[in-house]
């Protein structure tokens, strides 16, 4: 592929880029929004080498919005009707040496923060956004809530870390993979194996970081009357919710997509000041081993919640 040209954008030499579940869906041919041939990857950090902010170390908000529509003006820019995201046409993604982005999508990274950690701002911002919306809908403070997070990948673990940073004290993470359960437990969370243990009942706040029929069904069954479910995962399909129970018990269901620009900035700041912990649960591989990394994730051989590729 030819090198991107900065124009009015900043040209970033990529230092780290994470593999997302949506990249996996596209790679498997299950995402019509990402037709091949296309450079995937949207969890990016690097150094600006041309254009605005030249010389700055940055993490990249991959969601490009118009800034002028009703959603953008209301601070809900993630709902912009003309939104674009790198790794979807017409914008190529970050599994490459360089990417061009508008300067307003860049957050400067302090010198003491490794860019491999700064690249986690994107997946962690998804959890930040979901927790913020869910906490607003909850009828008790987070500090008093029993919270269950479904999924111990980067989205689920990130949501658990955000819950803890925002005051939640009772957090359970449900994850079937034994390697991921061990990693989640090492972060100080209670874990359960949904394949062998019954889900809790009367849960105040459920985060579905997986988004399959089975996890939606479990979420709608475990939420207490008046509880809140935030749905982040994009595993597929629309089935699974117990709509009758959710209606009779007034359970709030919130679909959450990405994050606002402010959510992204707030998440980056929390990474920089250590509020989200050491973030030492990633695995780093060379970009040239990207195909092998995708194979390992697809085959279930990768226990780590996040593989970060280094160009």
From TrEMBL:
Keywords from the named record: Oxidoreductase
Domain Alcohol dehydrogenase-like C-terminal: 154-269
UniProt-listed InterPro entries: ADH-like_C (IPR013149), ADH-like_N (IPR013154), GroES-like_sf (IPR011032), NAD(P)-bd_dom_sf (IPR036291), Zn_alcohol_dh (IPR050129)
Pfam families: ADH_N, ADH_zinc_N
Occurrences of domain Alcohol dehydrogenase-like N-terminal (ranges): 8-111
Keyword Repeat applies: no
Molecular function GO labels: L-iditol 2-dehydrogenase (NAD+) activity
Name the record gives this protein: L-iditol 2-dehydrogenase
Source species of the chain: Rubricella aquisinus
Organism taxonomic ancestry: Bacteria, Pseudomonadati, Pseudomonadota, Alphaproteobacteria, Rhodobacterales
